[in-house]
Design goal:
alpha+beta; 11-stranded antiparallel sheet; 4 helices
Length: 251
């Protein structure tokens, strides 16, 4: 079974117009979307599309409807002219804990039949109920730092933070996923660096024992994620950071 867990550190650093920095310890799932039934059979605390201490639900992803998440991803890729055939798709995400989850971002690593990474889909959600799918398939650079990290650039299309305008660009820095995990997102607003988010961690086996240990070490983590978003937003507001109202949804 290739599905696993990652224990990780999440760090946000804001440079303008207000300096702000915080970090949290988290754990995340890295799921082979072809292995969900096997994970459910072997990890007693985990279920797919039904309640458990930890659960994965297809309706939490992509179009927010029931149905195979992998098939949804394949349709999304096809709409962008990308065909991965029988390749594997891995999802880096948080799953529901006691029925609750909010994922600010989930990443789908989409591999072709030969095993090559053909695309990454970044599913970004905000606390206002909005969602956008960034399909990343044309890296600006690959492996220049010696780690095999791919860099993608895309224009911001979803209002996420009320303290950053829509005039922004994202640079994604995605290292190959293996024994270690490294994800970086750098945001520039009107050409100036404004924020970078870093996630780095190490691989853990996805077993009943390991998952149980994660639930004890990081209790109610998914609820804490939502609480942390609002706490950090309040801190920024109290620092006098300029506020941007939510625009109308994009097409």
């Amino acid at each position: 079974m290739t599905s696993c867990l990652y224990t990780a550190t999440l760090r946000h650093r804001r440079s303008r117009p207000t300096v702000h920095d915080f970090q949290y310890r988290v754990f995340m799932f890295y799921l082979d979307l072809d292995e969900l039934a096997e994970v459910q059979q072997t990890v007693r605390l985990f279920s797919a599309n039904r309640f458990n201490l930890v659960s994965f639900h297809d309706r939490d992803y992509m179009d927010r409807r029931p149905g195979s998440t992998k098939q949804k991803v394949l349709r999304c890729l096809s709409q962008h002219g990308i065909e991965v055939g029988g390749g594997r798709i891995y999802l880096l995400t948080s799953c529901r804990i006691l029925g609750y989850v909010f994922n600010p971002i989930s990443l789908y690593y989409c591999h072709g039949p030969s095993g090559s990474l053909d695309a990454v889909v970044a599913e970004v959600s905000n606390t206002f109920g909005g969602q956008y799918l960034y399909v990343l398939s044309q890296p600006l650079s690959q492996g220049a730092d010696g780690t095999g990290t791919r860099r993608y650039r895309t224009r911001k299309a979803l209002h996420v933070s009320p303290f950053i305008s829509m005039d922004a660009i994202y640079d994604f820095h995605l290292a190959p996923v293996g024994e270690s995990l490294s994800v970086g997102i750098v945001e520039h607003e009107s050409g100036d660096h404004v924020l970078d988010a870093q996630l780095w961690g190490r691989r853990m086996p996805l077993t009943t024992a390991t998952l149980g240990r994660m639930l004890v070490t990081y209790p109610l983590m998914t609820l804490k994620t939502t609480a942390a978003i609002h706490i950090q937003a309040l801190r920024l507001y109290l620092k006098g950071t300029p506020f941007h109202r939510q625009p109308d949804p994009s097409a």
